[in-house]
Amino acid sequence: xxxxxxxxxxxxxxxxxxxxxxxxxxxxxxxQLKTGDLDPRLFSRLRxxxxxxxxxxxxxxxxxxxxxxxxxxxNCSNNKLEDVTALKQFPLLEELTYENNVYLTxxxxxxxxxxxxxxxxxxxxxxxxxxxxxxxxxxxxxTSKVTAHWEKFFRDQLPEKYTAEQVKAIKKKxxxxxxxxxxxxxxxxxxxxxWRVKMIAEEFLSCxxxxxxNSDTEPEEKMDETEEEESTESPRExxxxxxxxxxxxxxxxxxxxxxxxGNKRSKSRANTEExxxxxxxxxxxxxxxxxxxNSHEDFKTQLWSCVFEPxxxxxxxxxxxxSSSKTVATCGxxxxxxxxxxxxxxxxxxxxxxxxxxxxxxxxLTMVITDSRRKAHNILAAAGRRGIVKLIHVAADFCYGEIxxxxxxxxxxxxxxxxxxxxxxxxxxxxIALWDIGIPDCDYNFKxxxxxxxxxxxxxxxxxxxxxxxxxxxxAGCEGGCFAWNIKLDKGQKSRPFEAIFxxxxxxxxTTSHRVDGLAFxxxxxxxxxxxxxxxxxxxxxxxxxxxxxxxxxxxxxxxxLAELEWSVTDMSYLTLSTCPAKDYVFCGDxxxxxxxxxxxxxxxxxxSPKGKRSERRISPTQILKWPELRLNxxxxxxxxxxxxxxxxxxxxxxxxxSVNITAIWKKS
Length: 669
Hints:
Elements (H helix, E strand, L loop, with lengths): L5 H7 L12 E3 L12 H4 L7 E3 L19 E3 L19 E3 L8 H10 L5 E2 L2 E2 L1 H26 L10 H18 L8 H19 L11 H7 L3 E4 L1 H6 L2 E2 L1 E7 L14 H9 L5 E8 L14 E6 L5 H4 L9 E6 L2 E6 L5 E7 L4 E12 L5 E11 L3 E6 L4 E7 L5 E6 L6 E6 L3 E6 L12 E7 L4 E6 L7 E6 L2 E6 L8 E2 L3 E7 L2 E3 L4 E6 L4 E6 L4 E6 H4 L9 E4 L1 E7 L10 E4 L4 E5 L5 E5 L4 H5 L14 E3 L2 E4 L10 E6 L5 E6 L4 E6 L1
């Protein structure tokens, strides 16, 4: 029987606790614990544990699934540890102590520095600079050597058409050769070097050459110990990971409301639902491409963000109607996918096993390729729970860098429309940072720098640059309201408080205190925002609400409301909205899988007038796209929330991201 019980954990909490999920600091030292005493099922309930002391025990290794997602400090000194690679399951770890484990060597120190990207202190010493060297310079040197070894000795051995047996044979031969012959650094680090070389070589075979590695007969446990944390899948591999969900488009799921006092829907909404039967878009594809571990049984991974890839033709980019391709980037769980909306093909898939991605954004950089020639390339930024921004050169299938932007999760990111290297990151640390990501050279060397920090009083959820002055003002929808900052870089102040907070109608009065979880511009002036007030989306004027000449910081201003859009009566948060400015459309999903669409082209002219009056009645949706009848493994799916819905600039496709790991693509009829 395990020595660790619920009662023991509660008693050893610092301070003592009554609930496992409330424990942040836990002392389990000097209990003669062995590895088998660490029950993953029990530890999985310690969701908020940040500090864990396991010193002076008898542990020889860590179980692979302790599930401590918020662990920051770990002390496992004076044990019998023989291996450290299982520590990669604690990606947020900042301080680690494992002194007096006689089987651990300098090689294990280097493995830990590579695996734990947030690690600052190892055995009491600041290892930040050394760790950066290990992760970047060391990895770059070894990658170059591995690639050169393949080109020199093995490239010509692979026939144009090869069988699975040939792949298996050449892989085995290459891995053995490269680990023997690629040497770098002092001999005291030879074990670490062989460990990294094998990782890099396997990734090289898989990603660069498209050679499958799963034909290997090595034990699964050994593969887990050495597999690369990040991976890029070829189109063929990505396609194999995707489950097409059975759909019956002709039968649309109806949300029958119960009669009586509990029905809060207005008559106008009921009429709208009847009108919505004439649907202008048809379901095209339903994809399950973000599954954890590529499991087709995963209907729990939440999908959060999607954005269409811009076209590279500079002439076409000036026209918003043709400023995107049919390719959309989506993110959720451990992966980012690139999907062709017309065919439903997953073109590329990028995974980080310890990440949960919340946001993606595109920019186009003019990069030097060879012979000083310059060429435009699309770069994708992806960020999430770990507070790290990944920079991906999509055409090259290569994540060339990362920015450790925040110590807490990043809720959303966006690029400046005028400065292609300027990236905004909004984090749970209540800060919005502006970064210059630089332009990588032909060897993908780049230098990122922080230009500005905007201090928020609550967590920023959505951000939007003001279209008429994107280099001067930024809006943010936060947990505690809607705020504006002056982001002009010629001001001396690098860290800035908000300049204005907007107040909105709340029953009979005005209030600033509400969660704003949806925010976007419909055109140069009209802002669309969704707050915690059920059943309502506000449209308001930026220019008439915010006086740029106003004096004073942190002032309260009233949003000049132009109209209210009727929406679901749910009080569920984080179902965000989007706009299609070229077509005057607003989109927002709801808690029942439906997409509410508002064509506002008949209103925008009146709103553009300096004295344009507020629309007296709530504007009903033009159409509501009902969630089709789906069968997941032969059964109806559980509750479906639409977390996000985005159209391309021409409104040819509508991409719907859900709470059940399904990406739905609709095509306008």
